[in-house]
């Protein structure tokens, strides 16, 4: 790769990726989401702090960040290199809390603006005595060669969490890591985690092994070198400094840092060497973009999948509820209990039913006798049916919504959705009245059907003699019994009433018409129920939607990362 | 740094504080915790349960190991000088020291005193053992089961008056190096030892891993904790005391209050005598082990405590009217009471109606008989009827509850579960909900039983007998008048000379008897109809109340009681956990 061929195109592609990363979100609390969120913010910071500024100004000075554990002597090292106290050093840990950026006075223009580290405030005119957390202290120095800036970062492993956070951010903005460690520290797990990341990304790294007891120098140095080799950092130069007494003003003696100083000066002087270091790190960063964008895209896919699972739960549960309603309506069970009692009242006494088998013609006569004259009041039966259907619908709807919530609590990301929408747990205040209205509307449908069926037939007179309401109720009764799924002893009671109802209607309309009527009426009721449940499902879906990522987030990330790859 | 007197004073204070834990309190805590686990079975978070089980097991095993040993562990970061300090304390080069990090990879134990610590060390799974003998020559354990490296014999030099008998000192591997295995081993042993000695140094004393993942996490254990700032020789006395103050501040943040930080230098041996004093006083107290077990159990109980609410909803305040209504409808109460009312009217009619037409009513079926609920009638007549057989079998012929009624029951029971489970953690809420929603068939069965066993009739009212008798009298009058008139008619037809019939005014007696009997009978039957309607309504109310009572009993026994049982379990668990985490158990 050669940075510089089509810098503008690359820059705009990276900026596009940055914008896509910025708007990406991972709202559902599913496994791995914490990692995805921190990956997103880390990637965003790195793009802002390093990749974009470096791409836009390739000739800017090389930024070497001194990172390392607390107490490893980073500040002492910077002070010694600069030749004056720019960063406070001391025995209390952690010492450095705000970063100090030391640069040659000619390079000042590169660092005062928001080119690098745009989120951090700048502070000039201090000598490092005052500390302002979250701000970069800018110190100009003539000891440092032009073309190289040193940044003293806070520690990576002390109890102060903000330090650890800031140090990682600063390291991701570095062209060169000057990794400071000590004889007591060099096998710590935390720094090696960071070094492994640097090695994977291809960041340029130099190691400073500080505070080594003279007698252990050879052993520790060779051990460290072998550890670096094992972890793919064989090319990283190691600079060592003995554990010695510091000079009066708290610096290392010049002898200890001479090698490091000359290496840095050589790097600063040699534009070619500097650009090799810069390009190596930049290439590493660009190389890692695609993979990380893919990881974010994968996380988006996982979010989508989790949301889809939540949605699917709603659909499946309500589908089951709908089936239960259908079954409850067609298996005749609605006709038991109160409805049956009212029906018996409606057509006569229980004794009457016992003689149903006695023959259709006699039966018909008797029924006609029952209905002749003033049709009996249908309101009781009517109401029993209404209540039955309404309760069936309400119960299934509540069972469904409670079931959905219960399942959601067990699904990844679900508990947060439930917690964010506490109103879902309680049924809507008007749910009962909505159901009741639905049933009334359906009754209207049934009566309308009866009227329409009776209009163009000679049956009108007969319908009138029963009363439209009466026929409507009988038809409703038939709707709830028609498939005849009743078995065993129940046939005697519920089945009997259904047979009777059917005979009555056949007497009025004829058998084919009765079947059509019943089917039509049932379909209308199911359609209305479906509509009702659809409304309830919509609010559940909306609750999930409030936790969903924007459509196409994954694709956009992939596309943006792909574009960067292409331009490179 | 030589402050033996101060060290000794602190030590005696330590011993006094330690005095609160004993084998009895450990046992009592274990028992409370065990019974809390029993009563809360299935309703406590698994992690907390596992932790509690580990603590209980550990307490059981540790207390069963004889010997008054105190296990003290030197723990810390790599390069802080644990092994050097260990060697200083032992007085021999037992643990390997070196510049190469991490140095120590397996724990090493040093045992003071004559009592055998093999069982303890086997349990700790520490293979490398070094016996610190009284005589300067020292001795090493002859055969250690774990195949330990035999440490070189060293000389122990306990200071005068220092009693270290019963001390088992462990040098742990580091917990912050690249070697993950070291950390695992250190974690394992830190779970088992009695006393923590955190060894740190001026370079590493503020490390996040030491504070956040070890000291702060284990501070909850309230086991004896000693913090050592080693490598003091590397700084000036002023700098080291500043470090020490800062470390004390950090320890306060970790939750270790009033921690004493000992400053030592393994290199020049300063401060080691203080540490020895400190350890010796802990050993002399002899209950650091119990204290650690005690605090483990306590913190396990504290963790579990978050799995129960601080109070249970009271079921007494709950209004179960909705539930009873729903159950009543599922049990068919409206159908039954209607039948009861009709039955009463029918019966009243049969007993007080006009005797000459009464028989017509008998042709109609009794409503209760249809439902096979008229066991009262059978009882009166003394005959065994089908209904008796039915009630013995335990089924009425009530139509089974409609899905709507069943759903209503489901709603009501779920409501009960919701209300009873309010404010409880999820697992308990689930248990409450399960208890409140028994399977459909079970509930239908008990409801049916309840209905079958409820008497549906009242004693026959007195007015039935009176009106019935009057009806017979009037009927007799009608018959008498009719026969008399018939006789007169026959006599007239036979031209027998008329016998004077007594008269009142213009109306003869037989006519009066006939007409009066008819009118009075008619009026009486109207009256009885009115009375029957009133009585039927009253009986309906009475029976409804009885049935509701039975159904309410079912609700109490089969729904509320199981829920109450869960709540009682919750209460028991909570109370036991409170006992287990109380500062003083006894």
List the helices and strands and how they pair.
The complex is a heterodimer of chains A (568) and B (586).
Chain A lengths: L6 H17 L9 H24 L5 E7 L5 H9 L17 E5 L3 H5 L8 E4 L10 E7 L6 E5 L8 H12 L3 E7 L6 H13 L2 E9 L4 H14 L7 E5 L11 H16 L1 H60 L6 H11 L2 H5 L5 H12 L7 H32 L3 H7 L10 H25 L4 H7 L1 H12 L10 H20 L1 H35 L7 H15 L1
Parallel strand pairs in A: 1-5, 1-6, 2-4, 3-4, 6-7, 7-8
Antiparallel strand pairs in A: 2-5
Helix pairs in contact in A: 1-2, 1-20, 2-9, 9-13, 9-19, 9-20, 10-13, 13-14, 13-15, 15-17, 15-19, 16-17, 17-18, 17-19, 18-19
Chain B lengths: L3 H15 L4 H17 L6 H19 L5 E7 L5 H9 L17 E5 L5 H7 L3 E5 L6 E2 L26 E5 L8 H11 L4 E6 L7 H12 L4 E6 L7 H18 L6 E3 L8 H14 L2 H18 L15 H10 L2 H20 L5 H5 L4 H4 L4 H7 L4 H8 L9 H18 L5 H11 L3 H13 L9 H32 L9 E2 L2 E2 H73 L5
Parallel strand pairs in B: 1-5, 1-6, 2-3, 6-7, 7-8
Antiparallel strand pairs in B: 2-5, 3-4, 9-10
Helix pairs in contact in B: 1-9, 2-3, 2-10, 2-21, 3-10, 7-8, 10-21, 11-17, 11-21, 12-21, 17-18, 17-21, 18-21, 19-21, 20-21
Largest sheet of chain B: 8 strands, mixed
Which structural category do the helix and sheet elements of chain A fall into?
alpha/beta
Mean pLDDT of chain A: 79
The H-and-E topology of chain A, N to C, reads as: HHEHEHEEEHEHEHEHHHHHHHHHHHHH
Assembly level = heterodimer
Overall shape of chain B:
rod-shaped
Main β-sheet, spatial strand arrangement of chain A: 3-4-2-5-1-6-7-8
Number of helices of chain B: 21
* SS field, number of helical segments of chain A: 20
Strand content of chain A is: 5-15%
Helix content of chain A: 55-70%
What fraction, in percent, of the residue positions of chain B are helical?
Answer: 55-70%
List how many beta strands of chain B DSSP finds: 10
